[in-house]
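Good morning C.,

I know you're traveling, so I'll keep this short. The sequence:
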Amino acid sequence: MAVRLASVRTATRRQVAERSSTSPWWRSAVVYQVYLRSFADGNGDGVGDLAGLRSRLPYLSWLGVDAVWINPHYPSGGADGGYDIVDYRAVDPEYGDVADLEALVAEARALGLRVVLDVVPNHTSDRHPWFQAALADPDSPEAARYHFAPPSEEPPNNWQSLFGGPAWSRTPDGRWYLHLFAPEQPDLNWRDPAVAADFERTLRFWLDRGVSGFRVDVAYGLFKDAGLRDNPGAYSPTLFGHGPEQAMTWNQPEVHDVWRRWRSICDEYPDTMLVGEVCLADPREVALYSRPDEMHQSFSFRLLKSAWSTEAFADGVRSALDAFGEVGAPVSWVLGNHDKDRQVTRFGGGAVGTARARAAALLMLALPGSAYVYAGDELGLPQADVPDEAKRDPIFFRSGGARSGRDGCRVPMPWNPSPGVGFSTRADAEPWLPVPAEWDRYAVSRQARDGGSMLTLYRRALSLREAHPALGSGEATVSTRGDVLTVRCTADDGSVVRCVVNMGTGTTLVRTRGTVLLASNTHVRRSPATVALPPHTAIWLAEG
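The tokens, ready to paste straight into the viewer:
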């Protein structure tokens, strides 16, 4: 059934592309993020791989997304979930080989899907040949490609690792080297031209194989203060992102020249794009990374980090629309990813958290710009409780267990209610992270048959977004009334869809003479002039 439906969705998507050929695909795309190890295991070893992803492409086409972004697939030291890379122009044997990735691109394109890769330019693995050469010979050319400081009693400055502890570690000969993440991830020195040249070769290597772009990890990093001066403060996890307290380690002005060069490379390959991970507190600073000659997009993380309240969400939407509007770029909306607790859990857990996650999905998918959906969020997965002995995340270990880490949002996808939840081709294969026993209730096969499921809601929303020009494009205005948030989306043709979200604890009446396109709650009641909107519920109302 999924294959037949996928072909229908492909035809629709191509028709829409033909109608809007003057607008680049990425401006309003729905991009599905795959954490490769956790999506589907195609060879029965308990680890997700490219073969598994290829087998599930019909599901993604049936769901109605436009592109798939894959977390790092490269050979890795294994210290940070694939983000400590040994070879940027290869595929980790656990996942397959370059031929498998080329086949993925071709098969995805046949279904109307694009493939976006993750690229990690801030640091390498400590097993990378460059770093190994730098350890062996302090005077080697490779040593200049990292940040080393001479032996001394104390680290060169007060910089801290985001994973906990100092950002400096010692080499066997007593030198200090910089790692703003794990010690196994030494930061590259982008003031060395050899670093830039090698990454440009990497971009072309994958673009030549048909990929449609890159998500750029730590895009606000790369350059550090040339004098290695102390930061004026310590990073606070309560911030929306890094600010003045991290002035010496992030957001150096030289980084924008890198993105101008990368943009020029993408311009040589039609319909390709760059989207940056830019974790800065000021949305205007984030938007600068998406100026016309830099990256095509940079993520807006406000909604991902906001509490469930009208004020917080209204500010998150307004501030992003204003900031990105100033540079003429679309907003890239994010509600979940591989680094944050699952939405259902963040929003309160249980029935309340699920209702809020359903409502938030309709809000995000209504907003003008692109939307990034993390695999499993369309199933309403909660944060999994991974036992300490099974955890893999360096954040857990570097913090001495004080921070639980990110394993709970990286647990394998449940596909069917069979033993092993259909993740692997072998039912008895032990997955790389344990799957909760009760997760069979979230399985794709079960939800696909349920007209009220989270999966059905996403699929209907994506279909309507494709059909209505006011959803995902045009202009939007934000208003609030008590616990009710309204975003009025207006298309270029004058059609209007209102997304109304009741973020309170009581039912509210919404006046309208329009058509209810979709509701996140099946218990929404309609009279001729009003809609009774239950708590934690969103609706789409078509007007005019």
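Safe travels,
E.
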